[in-house]
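I have been asked to look over a protein record a colleague put together. Alongside the sequence sits a line of tokens, each denoting a local backbone shape. Please read both lines and tell me whether the tokens look consistent with the sequence. Take the sequence as given and treat only the tokens as open to question. I have pasted the whole thing underneath without changing anything:
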Amino acid sequence: MQRKILIISIFIIILCCDQFSKWIVRQKLPIDKSIPIIDNIVSITHTMNTGAAFGILSNRRFFLITVSLISMIIILWGVLKYTLPGTLIVPTGLLLGGISGNLCDRITRGYVTDFIEVKYFSVFNIADAAVTIGTLLILISLIFTWKK
């Protein structure tokens, strides 16, 4: 039970941090404007992304909402049905929080607010980072589990 509470807590923290940070960016920074954080490396740049990572599947809102909902249902079903190993608690919370953060944007706005720009890479948000880190941690956990 404590593992499930921890997963849900991480999920809620990521969702709240993501939505709050996007709200601040939308309130304070016009679209396509930038504020340098680390010269020529990192900046806060307000963008609207109608697709998934790196803008793929642009303008496929219904598809992205459907995939997000199905993913969340499957993950939540697994969390409720099984006792996850300790190595999957944080990554599962990160995935749920990240998926739900971008899902909220897609449902309410029709696009995702991105704002963390890393030069020569991409513009992303806290939800994107949570999904990426959660996925990597799950893969690392599976690799080490598989070796056993």
